[in-house]
Design goal:
Length: 453
C-alpha cells in the first residue's frame, strides 16, 4: 500500500470511522486517495473547500423494504438501496445491482466509483448506484416481475429524468429494466423515457447500449496497446465472467482479430482453445439463462469445463496477451497478477468494477503491464446510457453505427485524458493515476463553483 499524503490521511481515517465495516467502500476510497496527494499539493483550493470530505459523503442514501409474494404465495422480504452520491455534473446516474451479496457498503463503493467514471466520460451525469440483496438466480419470470414492481413502488418517488436515472448492473438486464419502467409509468402516469436507461430499442432504448460496456473496454484496451505498437490482431485473450460485459467484450475482441480462449462464471471456467463460440455462449446464458458447464457440454471438441477453476492460472499453461476481468469485484488477486505478469501478459483492463485487488494492481504497475482501472475502461456502458438520455430528450433514435462511433470516440477521449493527466503528473502510462486525477478535478471544480451544498 502506498502511504497517503499527510493532508489526506485524516480524511481517510474519518471515512474508516464513519463507515465502519464497509470494506469495499474503504478500498475504493483509498485507491482514489493514493492518487490525490499531489493534486491537493498543487491546487490548495481543493483542500480549502473540503471538497474531498464532501465528495466522500453521499448526498443522499435511501434504504427501503421490498416485500413481494413468491410463486408459493409466501411473503418474501428484500432490502432495496439507492445511494445518490454526487450531482455536481448532472442527475445522479448509475446502475442497479440485484445480487445476494449486495449491502449498503457495496452500493457505496459502486456509487463512489461511478461518480469519477461518469466525470471521465465528459457527459453531464452525476454519480449514483442502487440495488438489492434479491437473488434472481432460480426465480421464475413472475417472481422477477413482482419483485421489480415492488422495488419500483418505493424507488419511483426518488428518481426522474432530471433527478436520478438508474440502469442495469449485475442481475439487472433488459428484462428487469422493462418491468421497472412499466411500473414507473403506471404509478406516475408518465411515459418518461429518460428516467431509466438500458431500455428495449423499441420503446426508447439506445442501439449499442447492450454492447457498450464490453465494446468500450476493448476500445480502451486497443488504445493502450497502440501506445506500445501492439493490437488485438492475433492476440490471445482471457475474459472472466459470462454476463453482459463479458459477452460483448468477447464479440469485439473477435471482430478485431483476437481470440478469447476462456471465460468463467461463479462455478467454474471454460477453456476453449479454438476461441469461445459466442452464439452458443449467448444461447446458454441469455436464452436458457443456464450455467457455463452447459456450454462445454454442447460445444464438445476441445472445449473443457473446469469446475471451481481459476481462469487467470491459464496464463501459465498457454500464451495469453491480454486479460479482461469482467466478472465482479476483487476477483483477481495478487497471486493471479503474478501469474499473468510472469507469463508475458501485456495489458489488463477492468471490464467489471474493481475486479483487481490493490495488491494485484501493484504487481501490474511494478511489472509495467498496461493496466486500465474500471472507472476508465468500463465507462462505455454509462457513456452510452448518457447517449440514450440524449436520444430520449430529443425524441430521436440513432443508428447502431452512429452510436457505436460515438462510443468509440468517447473511449478514445477517456484514454487521452487519462494518459495526458498521467504525463502531467510525471507518471506516463499510469492510467490509475490519470483516471483518478482527471475524474476528481472535473467533479471537484464543479463542486467548488456550486458552493458549499
Ligand atoms: N452499471 C453500469 C456501470 O457500472 C452502467 C450504469 C449506467 O448505465 O447508468 O457503469
Amino acid at each position: 500500500m502506498t502511504d497517503l499524503d499527510a493532508s489526506i490521511q485524516p480524511i481517510f481515517d474519518e471515512i474508516l470511522q464513519r463507515n465502519a465495516g464497509e470494506t469495499e467502500f474503504h478500498q475504493a476510497a483509498r485507491e482514489v486517495f493514493e492518487s490525490l496527494g499531489r493534486v491537493v499539493d498543487r491546487h490548495p483550493q481543493y483542500a480549502e473547500g473540503s471538497v474531498l470530505r464532501r465528495l466522500c459523503e453521499p448526498e443522499r442514501q435511501i434504504i427501503f423494504r421490498v416485500p413481494w409474494m413468491d410463486d408459493a404465495n409466501r411473503v418474501q422480504i428484500n432490502r432495496g438501496f439507492r445511494v445518490e452520491f454526487n450531482s455536481a455534473l448532472g442527475p445522479y446516474k448509475g446502475g442497479l445491482r440485484f445480487h445476494p451479496s449486495v449491502t449498503l457498503g457495496t452500493v457505496k463503493f459502486l456509487g463512489f466509483e461511478q461518480t469519477f467514471k461518469n466525470a471521465l466520460t465528459g457527459m453531464p451525469i452525476g454519480g449514483g448506484k442502487g440495488g438489492s440483496d434479491f437473488d434472481p438466480k432460480g426465480k421464475s419470470e413472475g417472481e422477477v416481475m413482482r419483485f421489480c414492481q415492488s422495488f419500483m413502488t418505493e424507488l419511483y418517488r426518488h428518481i426522474g429524468e432530471y433527478r436520478d436515472v438508474p440502469a442495469g448492473d449485475m442481475g439487472v438486464g433488459g428484462r428487469e429494466i422493462g418491468y421497472l419502467f412499466g411500473q414507473y409509468k403506471r404509478i406516475t402516469n408518465r411515459f418518461e423515457s429518460g428516467v431509466l436507461t438500458g431500455k428495449g430499442v423499441g420503446w426508447g432504448g439506445s442501439r449499442a447500449r447492450t454492447e457498450a460496456t464490453g465494446y468500450g473496454a476493448v476500445f480502451f484496451t486497443e488504445q493502450m496497446l497502440a501506445t506500445r505498437d501492439a493490437s488485438f490482431d492475433g492476440a490471445r485473450v482471457l475474459v472472466s465472467g459470462s454476463g453482459n460485459v463479458a459477452i460483448y467484450a468477447i464479440e469485439k475482441v473477435h471482430q478485431l482479430g483476437g481470440t478469447v480462449v476462456a471465460c468463467s462464471d461463479s462455478s467454474g471456467v471454460v477453456y476453449d482453445p479454438d476461441g469461445i463460440d459466442l452464439a452458443l455462449l449467448q444461447d446458454v446464458k441469455e436464452v436458457r439463462r443456464g450455467r457455463l458447464s452447459e456450454y462445454a457440454e454442447l460445444r464438445g471438441g476441445s472445449a473443457e469445463y473446469r469446475a471451481g477453476g481459476n481462469i487467470w492460472s491459464l496464463a501459465a499453461e498457454t500464451r495469453i496477451d491480454v486479460a479482461l476481468p469482467c466478472a465482479t469485484q476483487n476477483e483477481l488477486n495478487e497471486a493471479d497478477a503474478v501469474i499473468l505478469a510472469a507469463n508475458g501478459v501485456r495489458a489488463v483492463a477492468e471490464g467489471a468494477n474493481m475486479p483487481c485487488t490493490p495488491d494485484a494492481v501493484r504487481v501490474f504497475t511494478e511489472a509495467s503491464v498496461l493496466f486500465a482501472p474500471g472507472k476508465a475502461a468500463n465507462a462505455g456502458g454509462v457513456a452510452t446510457s448518457a447517449l440514450e438520455m440524449q436520444q430520449n430528450a430529443s425524441r430521436d433514435s440513432w443508428s447502431f453505427e452512429h452510436t457505436e462511433a460515438r462510443l468509440a470516440e468517447i473511449m478514445v477521449g477517456i484514454h487521452e485524458s487519462c494518459a495526458t493527466t498521467a504525463d502531467e503528473y510525471g507518471e506516463p502510462g499510469n492510467y490509475v493515476l490519470g483516471a483518478n486525477i482527471s475524474g476528481f478535478t472535473r467533479v471537484a471544480d464543479a463542486m467548488l463553483a456550486q458552493g458549499v451544498i
